[in-house]
């Protein structure tokens, strides 16, 4: 079972509820059900795959599902990397541990929605395939004009969908959890002020989001 997927579902439901607080509970439920249907289907597939019986056909099917899941997770990482590429130089500040930046990247999927996410994934896949054929490495593709264009599209979608009143709270909670979990691996981590570090990370992230993208 994917812990990340479960977190994505929870984040999505909370965002829908917050964005539609003026609606009745049954209307919110219908929106949440519709908005998370594909994610729940994926979760059920993962649970089924992990509990299916033995046998060569079953093994092949499980292998195929694992490969599909790995490909999906890899594409999710690509979307997040393209998203952060535009802003990483601006939000990387002294005292901000590197472990916090993936939090922002992981929030892209839930924030922009499944349809937009899939569209961006497809664009990135085509660009990577084209760039690799031309002999470009990953960083060169990220920094190329088409790469920056896709990153700009992702950023625009993200900014359009982040109007939820709970957005800041959810992001800070994720940053806090990640920081606490990684403190043993951070140099001088015991001396970090968790609250100040989380606030600084979110502040720099939000500052970039609300500024004009060049």
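-> sequence recovered:
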């Amino acid at each position: 079972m994917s812990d990340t997927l479960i977190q994505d579902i929870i984040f999505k439901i909370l965002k829908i509820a917050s964005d539609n607080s003026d609606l009745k509970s049954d209307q919110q439920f219908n929106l949440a059900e519709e908005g998370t249907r594909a994610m729940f289907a994926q979760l059920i597939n993962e649970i089924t795959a992990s509990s299916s019986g033995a046998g060569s056909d079953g093994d092949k099917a499980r292998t195929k599902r694992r490969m599909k899941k790995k490909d999906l997770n890899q594409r999710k990482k690509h979307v997040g990397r393209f998203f952060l590429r535009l802003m990483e130089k601006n939000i990387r500040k002294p005292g901000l541990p590197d472990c916090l930046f993936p939090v922002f990247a992981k929030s892209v999927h839930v924030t922009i929605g499944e349809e937009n996410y899939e569209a961006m994934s497809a664009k990135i896949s085509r660009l990577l395939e084209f760039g690799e054929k031309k002999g470009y490495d990953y960083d060169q593709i990220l920094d190329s004009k088409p790469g920056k264009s896709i990153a700009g599209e992702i950023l625009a979608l993200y900014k359009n969908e982040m109007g939820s009143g709970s957005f800041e709270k959810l992001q800070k909670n994720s940053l806090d959890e990640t920081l606490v979990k990684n403190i043993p691996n951070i140099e001088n981590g015991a001396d970090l002020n968790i609250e100040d570090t989380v606030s600084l990370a979110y502040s720099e992230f939000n500052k970039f989001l609300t500024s004009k993208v060049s």
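Residues 3-210 form one domain.
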